[in-house]
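Task 17 of the worksheet. Students: predict the tertiary structure of the chain below and write it out as structure tokens. Keep your answer in the requested format; marks are given for formatting as well as content.
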Amino acid sequence: MKKQSKKYSKPRRPFDKARIEEENVLKEKYGLKNKKEIWNADASIGKIRNLAKQLITRSEEEQTAFVERLQKKGFNVNSIAEALALDKEDWLKRRLQTIIFTKKLTNTPKQARQFLVHKHVSIGNQIVNIPSYQVSLEEEPLVKLNLVLKTSKSKSKIEEIKEEVVGGLELENSESVAEEGKIPTPEEINEEAKEEAVVSPVKEKVEESNETSAEIKPIEVKV
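Model answer:
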């Protein structure tokens, strides 16, 4: 088996700060696994630009055929000059992983990559599990997700206010019901028993004094 050669070349200045920051942004934006995918995209766009340079001196028919091929692949170009202005980001936008995210089939680019690797994505009836697959304009409408994704529906402000009002009323009702049917604690029962123990002897003495005063009759004095 023939060993596959690398499709990219490493940057000449490995510690260039500006390039590293740019690559970090692209890696997060498109959910890439590593920076080799960025270098691969740069090399692929470099090949397209080299072909465009060779066609500058060729006939118009060859130039238009080349531009049409690029348009079928999904690149927004109308002339050789625009083909020469293509960037690596234009190549990354045509990846299957990016197309799935731009069609809002997933919530994040990394989630799109996960579904691709787990074989939940198909183009027509063909399952594709290659995140770097270049999607043409004909294949783009056929991209679908073979999985039902639950997405949270955004609520309007009016619905949120209604829910807050209803929740507040339910809370007040529950508190009032709890107060009405409140069960006394053992501490409250003990306090009530102590109060009765103190008050009951006083009540008995008052009742006895009332009875004795009722039994005593006034003495009549005859003159």
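Marker's comment: Residues 186-215 form the longest helix (30 residues). The radius of gyration is 42 Å.
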